Amino acid sequence: MNAKNSDRNIHSWCMLVSALGLVSAAAAQDYPDKPIRMIVPVLPGGAPDFGGRIVAERLSLRLGQKVVVENRAGAGGIIGLEVLKTSPANGYIIATTQLGPLTVSPLIQEGLSYDPLRDFTHITNLLTFPLLMVSHSSLPAKNVKELIALARAHPGQVTYASSGAGGTGHIATELFNLMAKTKMQRIQFKSVAPSLISVMSGESQLTLSNSAAALPHVNSGRLRALGISSEKRNPYLPQIPTIAESGLPGYEASGAAGVIGPPNMPRAIVQRLNREIVEILNSKEVAGIMLPVGMLPAPTTPEEFTAYIKAELKKWEPVIRQANIKGE
């Protein structure tokens, strides 16, 4: 290829890139001109559903088009994300998902049909939620330090309840086991609610559960709170110490939910959605709804959200490997 042809090809490529950028900008300028579907890959009531509906209601007003929440539960969130992966990348189908299908499922599920980094557009993190370690009143341990001593003295005899393999409570408790050098025995349930019922009935001795679900039972006296899994105490629950400060330094494990889209969404549309959702999450109104139930608004840029997903994959890989956690 001679120099003249090479220069012509480079010029053509630059014009193509410029044209694509103009098309993307034009699409974003007209966006949206019809309703948007927001897939939530869990049943109503979970953190992604709770946060997604808060955002959807306010995003509808800001965009001038209805944002319709559609629950597509199944396989721990995988089914909903499989639908999203093959959807048109035009900004009219997005999803609010817990991070488990992006940061845990790829580590425990063989033959997973998607790659969490390659096959989705990361728009923003949405929220984080710490877990409460709660126990039945009959458990001799009254705090985390006493729990560690009890579990070390009786390997395999202290039982904990959790939902499906690789769920937030499951991997958070196995991280606790590894850091504390304990061996608490898992009893599995289908979801958070029966896990809590199991502890309240005394069938299991403790569980790590999202605070929104566990807190009413702590307040009623049916469960005892041993600690919270966040790095710092929750300002709405100042009486509950962190697990790190009360017996296991360095421990931190929080759930999270974020907003994603199909792969290769136009950059301008991603930026528009990010800007609107971040402003929603930074409002005092939304903070006043989320914080009292133990959820913290945690908006990010798209790049920060991608970095967070990568960091979570790195954090949980050794835990899953050492605890030998397998998909179901």
Describe this structure in words.
- The chain has two domains: 36-129 and 254-323, D-Maltodextrin-Binding Protein, domain 2 (3-Layer(aba) Sandwich), CATH 3.40.190; 130-228, Periplasmic binding protein-like II (D-Maltodextrin-Binding Protein, domain 2, 3-Layer(aba) Sandwich), CATH 3.40.190.10.
- The protein is built from twelve helices and ten strands.
- The radius of gyration is 22 Å and the shape is globular.
- The mean pLDDT is 91.
- Helix 1 (3-30) runs parallel beside helix 10, helix 2 (47-63) crosses helix 10 (267-281) and helix 7 (168-180) crosses helix 12 (302-323).
- It is of the alpha/beta class.
- The protein has helices at 3-30, 47-63, 78-85, 100-103, 105-108, 144-153, 168-180, 192-201, 211-219, 267-281, 284-290, 302-323, and strands at 36-40, 67-71, 93-98, 121-135, 159-162, 185-188, 206-210, 224-228, 254-261, 296-297.
- Strand 5, helix 7 and strand 6 form a beta-alpha-beta unit.
- Strands 1, 2, 3, 4, 5, 6, 7, 8, 9 and 10 form a ten-stranded mixed sheet that branches.
